[in-house]
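Data deposition worksheet. Section B asks for the primary sequence of the deposited chain exactly as it was used as input, without tags or linkers unless they were present during the calculation. Section C holds the resulting structure in token form. Section D is free text for depositor observations; keep each observation to a single sentence. Incomplete worksheets are returned to the depositor.
Section A, Depositor: J.P.
Section B:
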Amino acid sequence: MNTLRTAPSERFARAQRLHHEGSTAEARDLYEQIIGVQPDHCGALNALGVLSAQGRDPRQACVYFERAIAAEPDNPDAYCNRGLALKQLREFEAALASFEQAIALNGDDAVLHFNRAEIYRDLYKTEQALEGYDRALAINPNFVQAYFRRGSLLQIASRYPEAIASYDLVLNLQPEHADAHINRAFSLFLLRRYEEALLEYDKTLAMRPAVPYIHCYRGNVLKELNRREEAIASYDRAIALDPNFAEAYGNRAIALYDLGLVEEALASYGRAIEIRPNYAEAYFNRAYVLRSIKRFDEAAADYRRAAQLAPNTDFLPGARLEVALQTCDWLEFDALLAQITGGIESGSLVSHPFNVIGLVNSPSLQQQAARLWLRRNCPPDDSLGPIARRTPSTKLRIGYFSPDFRDHPTSRLIADLIETHDRARFEVTGFAFGPGSDDDARRRLVAAFDEFIDIDGQSNREVALLSRDLKIDIAVDLGGYTHNGRVGIYALRAAPLQVSYLGYLSTLGADYIDYIVADRIVMPAENEAFFNEKVIYLPDTFQVNDRKRQIADRIFTRAELGLPAVGFVFCCFNSSYKILPETFASWMRILNRVPLSVLLLISGDPALETNLRAYAARHRIDPRRIVFADRLSPPDYLARYRSADLFLDTLPYNAGATASDALWAGLPVLTLAGQSFAGRIGASLLTAVGLPDLITTTRDAYEDLAVALASDPLRLRQIRTKLRDSLQGSPLFETERFTRNLEAAFIAMQARQDAGLPPAHLRV
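Section C:
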């Protein structure tokens, strides 16, 4: 605060000197002596107000400032100081009026404009505050604090490039301004300019090496760059400086988990929560780790605790419902589903988009969920600039990107495709990220690709640059928003053409994904409006298969599988998250109508079996009629299908690879077709294999056909015979035919690219 310039007097001058030197008690005595003699001494009154404000008594300060103003109504300093005292009292409107009066008296004072801008900031009037900072800077172009506060306000408003420009002006005037370096680094981080942010944090640490949170933020940058060991070292340094730094423990846990150090990650989360018991984010993130190692009950408990502490946590309702579905715990299903669908409709961040595919039979809601996720996590990033136009070559370079090049359904489906590509016309490169492995599926793919590159330790930017350096013409994303997917690679434009295929069966909501591979059944023409991508329509089916899969010769006895000696066997080997209450209720009605029948499901968490048997009992079905099968090696798993009579599909997320497995093993699949891509997979596969009669479109028809087939052995035997006879010639299992169709799609989209035409829906 400023003291007033008044007519000099020896006593007042001495009081000011004492005040300046910090002898405030003596100064106060002298000021009070002055106003005892001269009650309207403006300078002494103002100085007493300043002392009161410094003594944390802004209310008394205002009394003195009012008296000073009454004594000298045209002095701007008293209005300024009163405004500052009112700001301390959080009486912002009154403070603003006081600064307006000061500016009316002295409009060329940069500090007055700065202080008024600070009040506008407190009132959340961003544009007026920025205008005030700009006015102060127009008067005083060297006003460092105005540049800094302007930058911090722009940062709060998510206007990061402008904030950085403002911090640059601070640093031009004061290169060692550590706070400007810190804030500049954070804005760069939020812009995903991680390499620049790292350099900025390094500069800051050279000035402030012992500040824990700077080491923590530096770790966050390294984590985003996939330099996880270095990130952990930064977090460890932060913790060494502050052993109770909960956020450092929480972020360290994320890096540990990304390195596959699950128990260490859980311990780090535990320490974070021990330090800060109300740390909602740590509960949320620990739940994710627990879910990944199938400790579903513990994960659900952590999600519940996060919901108690911070009910508006982004994506929490979807995460809670997803983990509950792993054990078919439907206690809060309706409430959480309503929260998710309502939230998506209102534009809220309530669920990961992959969860939404399995919950709603609505392409529109799925698209909205994807767009919301993308806007937050992987918006378009043009920092690498456009890809230079390429000279057409004799071979198209195709890059397949996947987190699942291991023993995983995606790899089991595409291995034959990679092996079958025409090497005279195509060069294929595999880009692997996510968990590593040394299993048969991985080794087969490594041998099949022309080049196989493990990019797990590289940042999205590094991967995009690598893809560009390799002159990949078409980048095929096999992961999407599934676990470990890295859509951010394509946000940077890894190739001139980018295609979504197989791994994520809905729109990614991204304009930088040019195409999605589909067929006329999974993608009715009216659904094109719900996809940001243009559609490549393959002629038979969108799903590739491996014609080389081996089925074990083993013949399972019913006793081995826990099945009764007699009775019809329905089965569904889909993941438990696809089994929604409505589907299970439908199955129970089918069992009720088919005496002695049983339902064979894949075993999972003990809670899954307990819950489903309890739900069966509620439907008045003997819980023993729900039988759970163990997980087996792929050949034995395929052989086990021979022990079932009919596969019952799920909705809104149909079986994909699982349905193909059943058909390959000779087991008919009964499907209920929905509205979305994922809800029409079964219809696509059955059409391709020549069994369209097993496609239903209403739940009543689905149940009636299941009962009819179970009650008519001859009809079912004829279907099985037709399936067996059509397998070798079916488009579903003719990998070479599929590969030629997909290659024709690649050639067609590249031809448009070469002609300078934008992506368009294409039919092969």
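Section D:
The chain has 34 helices and 14 strands.
The radius of gyration is 34 Å.
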